Amino acid sequence: MTSTAVPTQAQPKQAPPAPERRKNWAPYALITGAVLVLLLGMGYPVGWQIVTSFQKYGALQQLGGKAPDFVWFDNYIAIAQNPTFWEVTFRSVLFCLVTAFVTVVVGVLMALLMTKVPAAFRFILQIALLLAWAMPVIAAMTVWIWLFDRRKGVINYLINLIPGVDIGNFNWIGTTPLLFFIVASIIITWMSVPFVAFSAYAGLTQVSGEVLEAAQLDGAGAFQRFQHIMYPVLKPVIAIVLLLNLIWDLRVFAQITLLQDAGPKSTDYDLLGTYIYKTGVAGMDFGGGAAMSIFVLAITIALSWFYVRSLIKEETQ
């Protein structure tokens, strides 16, 4: 009697246990440090502004003669009922929108120019932009005020050289608020264009030259190449520089103050930065000035939220 051996099934091999992944704490430490620096650097000033905006805080309180009294929302109600404040707010928002848009357009055009010119001319252009960007505000404003001076200004001199034109000692800064803010917009655009140009040029270096050449051979014009090839690459850069310029131009202060020192000092020539300074510091109404500052902070957060929301959408996609 023979017995047959039953083959035993091979036991599956067990996979070795996966090695334990050690959590990298370095990114969290770096973010924590940045957040702490931000809170220490900005937390106290913002907190002081918020508390002061609910107080009656004037010259007496500033000198320590009397503790400030809490008036809660009275400062906010006062600025809400102040028609001059809303005129200045509308003017400031319109000014920052126009100036930021013009700055981005000119900056992108300058970046496109740098991609087309020879290397030597591009180097000279980049040095000129860098010098314009690095010039201190006071020094730059001294030059610009001299250029638009009504008695010895270069602008009036050159215009008077045109045959048949005689504007005399025309006052560019003090004639009308419109001319004042056109001059201010030109100055601020000149100061901000280098940042936009360098940022956009860095983005354009990521565009494939072979793709552009192939599109040109296929008959695509310059605008079509920019719209369908360059713009998708530049879109994130344009978004962030436009947002930054909107925030900077909304809070502009030094340029407007120096122009007002050389010309009119009426509230018709004010933007939010100068109006808040005149109300809070010069007018010794620190509570009202703080409430206006919180309002500007809210506008800044609202402008930033559109960009943050687009970033969140990209992350989820």
From TrEMBL:
Signal peptide: none annotated. Keywords: Cell membrane, Membrane, Transmembrane, Transmembrane helix, Transport. CDD domains: TM_PBP2. It is found in: Cell membrane. It is a multi-pass membrane protein. The keyword Transport applies. One of its GO terms (cellular component) is plasma membrane. Residues 1-21 are annotated as: Disordered. Its main location: membrane. The chain crosses the membrane at residues 25-46, 93-114, 120-147, 179-204, 229-248, 286-308. Pfam families: BPD_transp_1. One of its GO terms (biological process) is transmembrane transport. Residues 89-307 form the ABC transmembrane type-1 domain. Belongs to the binding-protein-dependent transport system permease family. This is Sugar ABC transporter permease. The lineage of its organism: Bacteria, Bacillati, Actinomycetota, Actinomycetes, Micrococcales.
